[in-house]
Amino acid sequence: MTKIVLVCGAGMSTSLLVTKMEQVAAQHEGTYEIMAVPGSGLKGVAEDADVLLLGPQISFRKKEYAQTYEPHNVIVDVIDSLDYGMMNGEKVFNHALNLLKNK
Question: Which end of the chain is more exposed for a tag (fewer CB within 10 A), N or C?
C-alpha cells in the first residue's frame, strides 16, 4: 500500500483534494491510502507515509519536515499552488507517483 499524506494549516482545505485524489487513485493499479492532516497532527502519522505533500500555505516548513521525516524514507514536497487552488486531484496524485518513481 502506498500512503500519501497531505498537510495544511488546519487539515480542512485539503479534505476536498483528498477526495479528488482518491477518485483518481481508484483508476490506478495498486492500493493507496490518501489522507489530510494539520501540521500539528503529523506525529505518529507521517513516519510510515511514502509521500508527504505540503499545502502551499505551509511550504515554509518543508525544510523542517524534510529533516524530520526523510530519515524515515518519507519523500517531502510541496503541492503546486495552481494545482492546489484548482483542487486538481489528478495532477497532485500524479505528482506523488512521480516522486515515488524518482525516489
Answer: N
